[in-house]
Amino acid sequence: MKTVVKFGGSSLASAEQFKKVGEIIRKDPSRRFVVPSAPGKRNDSDTKVTDLLYRCYESAEAGEDFTVLLKAIKERYYEIIRGLSLEVSLEQEFHEIEKMFQEKAGREYAASRGEYLNSRIMAAYLGFPFVDAAEMIVFHEDGTLDLEETDRCMSQRLLPMDCAVVPGFYGADREGHVRTFSRGGSDVTGSLVARAISADMYENWTDVSGFLVADPHIVDDPETIETITYRELRELSYMGATVLHEEAIFPVRRQGIPINIRNTNRPEDKGTLIVESTCRKPRYVITGIAGKKGFCSINIEKSLMNSEIGFGRKVLQVFEDQGISFEHMPSGIDTMTVFVHQDDFVDHEQQVIAGIHRAVSPDFVEMESDLALIAVVGRGMKSTRGTASRIFSALAHARINVKMIDQGSSEQNIIIGVENRDFESAVKAIYDIFVTSSM
Ligand code: ASP
Does 239 fall in a domain? Predict the structure, then answer.
């Protein structure tokens, strides 16, 4: 058995957290490949080392004195080293970083040092070899990942090894310049390592016990999702549920490697298992509820729309020309409604309306703003009778007016549009009908 374990910033923010991580790794001998993030926040008012590094580098770039800030960063690491009673010196590393900052080595180089240094400490603490991600993760010139080359380099390097610590978040382009993923990108590194060594499991350790059925800011103490498919996860995450970096899925998905989201502070919890497919029955009919506020709808009416070939394409072309992506597009026989993010739309509103008039000469165009979309997602909904009726009777009971309904033919998600002000009560009502009342 080979397990890749990735630890997020809050799991490695202090020596205490490192000790918990050490215990977790030693408890299971299959946990042999470790991907650390940079130290995160120790408490709510703390700052992540990555953010300190960005700030420090900005100062260096502006020609200001950045040594005080760099010293504060150094102290974060030394606090961990002392707390673990390690004999590790990072003097040479910090000397090099200072020099590279003076030479303006770039923001991405600067940010990557957070993971690099933490991984050096982790390797010393565990007695595992350190393998630099810059030697294995290959980026194209434009900053996107070269997956094939990365996979090749990584397998070649890591497959013969028994164990290793690989820093998260960065790699390098062909010229050797350090490049980073977007924020939270250590999740992607973990996934790449899991793929390269054909791991049996990718454990992603963080500070929550997995995905929750609904947002805890809306529902009190929501249940944890035990098992979720990649597809369900996509549906939920595009509607706002984020625990895992969205690019962390694709390297492992095709290989059938499951991801287990675990809580470093509660290692006894099983967390959430993300799988390609499963015959495990979900505990409830729905797997999760997610949603976002701040949409607006553009409703277009024209008689005999249904027989006008190319109508939809022409309308969508107008949005494309303005660089606006649409979220949903329910339609009726003579109507079509396009849902877009309000923030993306407002500045282009008049151009879009004029464009639609020019493109399709509609009878009528109407707009509505301040709408929220809620995605109710679950593989258990497929072929279960009465799911939609339960949702809508719950919403009716809660006196919520439904503005839009859209069910994908996969039968795994139902999207509901309500007014922004009804958003929270709608999520609660749906949670209650499927979860609270079936407990
Ligand atoms: N340290 C980076 C960040 O704060 C990457 C990561 O933690 O995954 O975004």
Answer: no
The beta strands (E) that lie in 144-219 are given as 164-165, 170-173, 178-180, 201-206
Span 123-152, pLDDT tens digits: 999 999 999 999 999 999 999 999 999 999
* Rounded CA separation 352/345 (Å): 9
pLDDT at 266 over 80: yes
0.90 surpassed by pTM: no
One domain, residues 33 and 167:
yes
Q: What is the mean pLDDT of the chain?
A: 94
Q: What is the DSSP string of 62-112?
A: TT---HHHHHHHHHHHHHHHHHTT-----HHHHHHHHHHHHTT--HHHHHH
CB atoms within 10 A of CB 434: 24
The CA distance from 8 to 114, in Å, is: 12
- Domain-located, residue 267: no
Q: Which of 179, 186, 188, 193 to mutate to test the pocket of ligand 1 (most atoms within 8 A of CB)?
A: 186
Full residue range of the structural domain in which residue 28 is found: 10-197
Which pLDDT does position 251 carry in this prediction?
Answer: 92
Residues 344-355 have pLDDT tens digits of 999 999 999 999
Q: Ligand 1: residues whose CB is within 6 Å?
A: 9, 37-38, 48, 50, 114, 168-169, 183-186
User: Are 188 and 297 in the same domain?
Assistant: no
**C-alpha 50 to ligand 1 mean position (Å):** 7
Identify which of 298, 357, 354, 305 has the alpha carbon closest to the alpha carbon of residue 326.
298
Alpha carbon of 360 to ligand 1 centroid (Å): 47
